[in-house]
UniProtKB/TrEMBL annotation:
It is a multi-pass membrane protein. InterPro entries: MCT, MFS, MFS_dom, MFS_trans_sf, Proton-linked_MCT. The chain crosses the membrane at residues 20-39, 60-85, 97-126, 147-166, 178-197, 229-252, 264-282, 294-313, 319-341, 353-372, 384-410. GO terms for molecular function: lactate:proton symporter activity. Belongs to the major facilitator superfamily. Monocarboxylate porter (TC 2.A.1.13) family. This is Monocarboxylate transporter 4. Residues 21-411 form the Major facilitator superfamily (MFS) profile domain. It holds the Pfam family MFS_1. It is found in: Basolateral cell membrane. Keywords: Cell membrane, Membrane, Symport, Transmembrane, Transmembrane helix, Transport. Its main location: membrane. The lineage of its organism: Eukaryota, Metazoa, Chordata, Craniata, Vertebrata.
Length: 467
């Protein structure tokens, strides 16, 4: 589960690990920044929306939850679209959707309309950009993939550092409606990034035609046969329950303590600044030859570190305490962000990654819909932020234990595979090589050929062989 899978890509072309891949990496950097920073950055407008529509914390938290739920829940749809139309066309349409949603949100007159525009439409647009960009990055990089993932993931904190203060400035000068309108215009840059996603093409060999691309399922469900993938999906779904809760509520927490709005928004900038360096560093460390085979354990440690930070951050009672919390949360959050898709790529490989990431994101979507709103409900009931952070920390800690213990159980299975393999090889040899002094009846041969595939010497793929 922790080892890297090396393959040639869906078209049989070896990953160039450079060249135009750096342009693809830049596009993925921008797309990742918009996709992950946007749901947190809009939390700057929550106080204004509460006053505008007379609603509670949990109602505004649904905007971020729906954005993330669309980013995750439309994963299978994105997989089907990418496998059918390719990455570049899907991303162009997604960029238009993301921009249109925020522009329409600036004209909304109710919170339900905001859910539909800023949540559903913009979230769908970001999803149609995010997943294809990761698929292209995985196709262009192999040996340098961990550091490429770390650099691309750094787009999230970089954009968070920029979008959070920008959102506060836009709200102060133009109100939340003008802010949403300008942010919608910024999202059109996703279309520019889509143009950078040039597909890999197999070169002509000996003047002959290019090799035909093998047919591909629109959604490959065979990844569920891999027990490593199943454990990863379960752990990631539990992690998402609490992972995004602290960034959504930390600004409102500071404002509730009497911190000025600008200083409160600066907390996300601090978190993002630390995150900028944490992600490439985690990617570089994971790429080391002695570390890469154990990337899953490093990912488990990152989740444990993040959950423990949430628990300790629940004791913060002033602005200084929240600053310290954001520093350590930025480190742990950056490690998680840099490793989560690298580990998934290592488990399933390039050929199945487009389907695997869609299925994982779908499973995580349910948790995304539950996480921040449940924290908002808890806050509305208790008016104590401490309990919100404790709940989030407990959920992330649980996910780290699931991943660690699940992977440990797989690796600790009794080593009976070698004797069994030898026995099965002996039986197979007997089946295919009958004794010389025995006459084989034609009816027996016909019966043997009609037997089940697994009895005819073919390899049957099971979770054990996948892992």
């Amino acid at each position: 589960m922790g080892g890297a899978v090396v393959d040639e890509g869906p078209t049989g072309v070896k990953a160039p690990d450079g060249g135009w891949g750096w342009a693809v990496l830049f596009g993925c950097f921008v797309i990742t920044g918009f996709s992950y920073a946007f749901p947190k950055a809009v939390s700057v407008f929550f106080k204004e929306l509460i006053r505008e529509f007379g609603i509670g914390y949990s109602d505004t938290a649904w905007i971020s939850s729906i954005l993330l739920a669309m980013l995750y829940g439309t994963g299978p749809l994105c997989s089907v679209c990418v496998n059918r139309f390719g990455c570049r066309p899907v991303m162009l349409v997604g960029g238009l959707f993301a921009s249109l949603g925020m522009v329409a949100a600036s004209f909304c007159t109710s919170i339900i309309q905001l859910y539909l525009t800023a949540g559903v439409i913009t979230g769908l647009g970001l999803a149609l950009n995010f997943q294809p960009s990761l698929i292209m990055l995985n196709r262009y990089f192999s040996k340098r993939r961990p550091i490429a993932n770390g650099l691309a993931a750094a787009g999230s904190p970089v954009f968070l550092c920029a979008l959070s203060p920008l959102g506060q400035v836009l709200q102060d000068h133009y109100g939340w409606r003008g802010g949403f309108l300008i942010l919608g215009g910024l999202l059109l840059n996703c279309c520019v990034c889509a143009v950078l996603m040039r597909p890999l093409v197999a070169p002509k060999t000996g003047g002959g035609p290019r090799p035909q691309q093998s047919s591909k399922r629109l959604l490959d469900l065979s990844v569920f046969r891999d027990r490593g993938f199943v454990i990863y999906a379960v752990a990631a779904s539990i992690m998402v329950l609490g992972l995004f809760v602290p960034p959504v509520f930390v600004v409102s927490y500071a404002k509730d303590l009497g911190v000025p709005d600008t200083n409160a928004a600066f907390l996300l900038t601090i978190l993002g600044f630390i995150d900028i360096f944490a992600r490439p560093t985690a990617g570089f460390i994971t790429g080391l030859k002695k570390v890469r085979p154990y990337s899953v354990y490093l990912f488990s440690f990152a989740m444990f570190f993040n959950g423990f930070t949430d628990l300790t951050g629940s004791t913060a009672s002033n602005y200084g305490g929240l600053v310290v919390f954001c520093i350590f949360f930025g480190i742990s959050y950056g490690m998680v962000g840099a490793l989560q898709f690298e580990v998934l790529m290592a488990i399933v490989g390039t050929n199945k990654f487009s389907s695997a990431i869609g299925l994982v994101l779908l499973l995580e979507a349910i948790a995304v819909l539950i996480g921040p709103p449940s924290g908002g409900k808890l806050l509305d009931a208790t008016h104590v932020y401490k309990y919100v952070f404790i709940l989030a920390g407990a959920e992330v800690l649980t996910s780290s234990l699931v991943l660690l213990l699940g992977n440990f159980c797989i690796r600790s299975r009794p080593e009976v595979s070698k004797p069994e393999a030898a026995a099965s090889a002996l039986e197979e040899e007997k089946l295919h090589k009958p004794p010389v002094d025995v006459q084989v009846d034609s009816r027996e041969v016909e019966h043997f050929l009609k037997a089940e595939p697994e009895k005819n010497g073919e390899v049957v793929h099971t979770p054990e062989t996948s892992v």
